[in-house]
Amino acid sequence: MSIQEVQGAKETPAYQKKKKAGSGEGFQESLLQNLRVREQDEETYADSAQGKKCAQEPSEAARIGVTGGVRVNAAMLTEAVQTEKVRHIRYEESDHVKIAVTEGYTLKGKRLEDIEESAREQTVNMTDVSEGEPAEGNKSSRVYVEAKYEDGRIEAYRVETERIPLKTTHIIEQFALETMREA
Amino acid sequence: MEQEWSYLAEEYRAMLYRIAFSNMKNRADAEDAVQEAFLRYMKEDAPIPNKEHEKAWLIRTTIHICLDILKSGWYQRTVPWDESSMSAAKNIYLPYQIRDDLTLEAVLQLPTHYRNPIYLFYYEDYSIHEIAGILNEKEGTIKTRLRRGREEVKKILTERRP
Question: Tell me, what's the ipTM?
Answer without folding.
Answer: 0.82
